[in-house]
Amino acid sequence: MDKISIIGGKKLRGTVKVSGSKNAVLPLLFSSLLVEGEHIFHNVPFLKDVETTCLLLKYFGCEIKREENSLKIKKQKKLQSIKAPYQLVRQMRAGILSLGPLLAKHGSAEVSLPGGCAIGTRAVDLHLKGLRQMGAHIELIRGLIVARVKGRLKGTRILLDYPTVGGTENLMMAACLAEGPTFIENAAREPEIVDLAEYLNKMGADIQGAGTDLICITPKRILYPTEHTVIPDRIEAGTLLLAGAITRGNICISSCVPRHLDAVLLKLEEAGFFIKVDENSIELSAPSDFSSVNIVTSPYPGFPTDLQAQFMALMTQAKPGSSSTIRETIFENRFMHIQELVRLGADIHLDTHTALVKGGSLLQGAPVTATDLRASACLILAALVARGETLVHRIYHLDRGYEHLEKKLSSLGANIKRLK
Ligand code: UD1
User: Fold this and answer.
1) 3-class DSSP string for 341-385
2) pLDDT for 152-177, tens place per residue?
3) Does ligand 1 come within 6 angstroms of the Cβ of 168?
4) Which atom of ligand 1 is nearest to 401's Cα?
5) Considering only CA atoms, which residue is closest to atom 1 of ligand 1?
6) In 3-state terms, what secondary structure has residue 46?
7) Ligand 1 centre distance from Cα of residue 60 (Å)
8) What would the pLDDT profile of 80-105 be if each residue is shown by its tens digit?
9) Most buried in the list 247, 255, 354, 380, measured by CB within 10 Å?
10) Coil/strand/helix, residue 92
11) What are the pLDDT digits (tens) for 130-149?
C-alpha cells in the first residue's frame, strides 16, 4: 500500500494552482442521470472519488470518455441498471446522490446505504424524508434503499431539519423533473450547491435562490445536456494555504475563488498571517510568530469542517504558552487525527466536541496512520514542520479527495515523496 514520506523543516515558497472541486464535481456528474445525451464537464480533477462515480455511472449504463481534465458522459434513454451496488457506494458516501436523479428520471432506484469517511454516523434520513414528501415510496431492505414513485415526483415545500449539503443537492436534482415547483427551506448554502444549480439551469431548469437558505425549483418540460466548468476546490486551496502557514512560508494560491474561503482567511489574519487577495488568487506570508485562535466549524459560510483537522495542525505551532479551542459541530467523530498528532508530539486534549490545542509543540517525525480524507492532509501538514521523517500510512484516503497533493507541495519546496 502506498505511503508518503515527509522530512520536515522546509519553508514553502512559490505559486501553486488549485484543481477542480471534488465536492462540486460529484453531484454534477450524477446530475447527468437526469437527461439523455452528452454532458461535458471541464476542470475535472483526477481523484479516486471521481473514478468511483464514473464506475457507478458506467454500471448504470452511461458511456464515459476522459480527455485530460474534461469528462464526457453519454446518458442513454434506457439504463442497464437502477441499482447502486454496495461495492461501489461503500467506497464513497456521494453515491447517495444517484438516488434523487434516478428516482426522478426512471421512477425507481436502489442505492446501498453509503460509506465514505468514518467521521460520524452520516445519516441520509433527510434525503429520504424530502423524497417521501415528494411522493416517493421508500423502504430500507437489508442495507439497500429501495425507492419507487408512481408517475412523477410532486413538487412541494420541504423544510430541512438541518442544512445538509448532499440532501439539498439530491432534492434539487429530483425537483427538476417533478410536477410543480419545490421550495427547499433551510437549504445548504455551500458554493458547490450554487455550481450544481448553475449547471441544472444551463440544462434548462429554473432554479432560484441557490446560495441562500431558500431554493425554489420550477420544473421545465424539456431539459438538455450541455457543458460546464467545475469551480475550484476551496478545501484544497485552504489546505495548501495552511501548509504555507504552518511552515511560516510565503506562497500564492492561484486559480481559486478567494471569497469561498472568507472564514478561513479571517482566522489566518486573526492569527497574524498577512493575506493579500486578488480576483482569483490568494497570497499568504507568515509573521515570525503567530497567535492561537479559536474556531467553531459550521455550515457555509462558517468555518468548514473539511479544514478543521488541517487548522488544528497549524495551531500546534502557534506561540508557546498560547492555546486554541477547536469545536466540531458537524461530524461527531471528526477528531481521529488528534491521537496521531499527539504521536508526533502535539499537546491536545479532547473534551467531547471541543479540542484544546496548546501552541509551541516541537513535533518529531514518526510513523502515523491516516484515518480519513482530511485527517491525512492534517498529518502531512504537521509532518512538514516535524523534525526528521514522518511516514503517513493509509494514504488511499488522501487520493479520494486531493489531486497530486504531494507533487504540489513538492513544487513549493517540501521534502515529500510517495513510496510504493
Ligand atoms: C458534504 C461534503 C463533505 C463535507 C460536508 C459538510 C460532499 C461530497 N461532501 O458531505 O466533504 O464535510 O458536506 O460540509 O459534498 N445529516 C443527517 N441526515 C441527513 C444528512 C446529513 O443527520 O440526511 C448529518 C450528517 O450525519 C452530518 C451533517 O448532517 O453530521 C452534515 O452532513 P451533510 O451536510 O449532508 O454532508 P455531506 O453531504 O455528507
Assistant:
1) HHHCCCCEEEECCEEEEECCCCCECCEEECCCHHHHHHHHHHHHH
2) 999 999 999 999 999 999 999 999 99
3) no
4) 11
5) 165
6) coil
7) 24
8) 999 999 988 888 889 999 999 999 99
9) 380
10) coil
11) 999 999 999 999 889 999 99
